[in-house]
Task: inverse folding
């Protein structure tokens, strides 16, 4: 049963803290859940509901489902989460999904976009995505590079749209920190004994971060491939 988000749900820094077993559905435009999902700016379109035709939410035909509306947050979970130490006493977390069978396995490293790797986005989007990649035989790693900064996401919404100007200000200030964190994560994955050749996938902002990080590690011979989705290369970055 998919329940509407309770009015007293904790809401901090636009990150919803939801019980692991909870799922939620967005109904009318004035509902608390819908208001808070819009403050997240996160996929309030019906097209993003992965199983809306079979969703047993008990809602009306016009209801809008977000990914959480049809995904139980208790699964899937990573096989391992490890810490990568950064200069200046900082650290980031990397979530690992391993395929079946003996390794070493080819590795896929994923860099998220402005939505970050909050508890919400990990459970609703990143973990299912990483798990599906690992089921194809790849050791899959989700890099939480925002851990090195004082925020979990950059879904800064102004009148229903991303505030690109404000995000760009933060980008100019912090992009070197993101790149350094991403590069150290690539080094850590490369040094693991259970992985072989490595590829990188970057989504949106993660495309910029991933391409910049790989421009530094490519001189060491990795990754072997880079795939960018809905992103590009920052003008400050030199690609060898």
Result:
């Amino acid at each position: 049963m998919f329940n509407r988000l309770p009015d007293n749900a904790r809401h901090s820094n636009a990150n919803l803290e939801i019980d692991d077993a909870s799922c939620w559905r967005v109904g009318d435009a004035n509902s608390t859940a819908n208001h808070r999902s819009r403050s997240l700016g996160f996929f309030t379109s019906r097209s993003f509901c992965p199983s809306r035709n079979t969703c047993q939410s008990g809602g009306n035909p016009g209801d809008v489902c977000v990914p959480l509306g049809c995904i139980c947050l208790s699964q899937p979970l990573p096989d391992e989460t490890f810490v990568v130490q950064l200069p200046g006493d900082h650290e980031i977390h990397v979530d690992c999904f391993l395929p079946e069978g003996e390794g070493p396995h080819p590795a896929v490293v994923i860099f998220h976009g402005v939505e970050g790797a909050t508890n919400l986005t990990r459970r609703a989007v990143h973990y299912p995505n990483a798990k599906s990649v690992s089921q194809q035989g790849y050791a899959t790693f989700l890099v939480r590079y925002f851990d090195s900064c004082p925020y979990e996401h950059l879904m800064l919404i102004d009148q229903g749209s991303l505030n690109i100007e404000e995000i760009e200000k933060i980008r100019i200030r912090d992009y070197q920190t993101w790149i350094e964190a991403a590069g150290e994560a690539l080094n850590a994955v490369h040094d693991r004994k259970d992985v072989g050749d490595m590829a990188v996938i970057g989504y949106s902002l993660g495309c910029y971060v991933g391409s910049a990080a790989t421009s530094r590690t490519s001189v060491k011979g990795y990754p072997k491939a880079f795939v960018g989705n809905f992103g590009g290369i920052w003008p400050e970055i030199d690609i060898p």
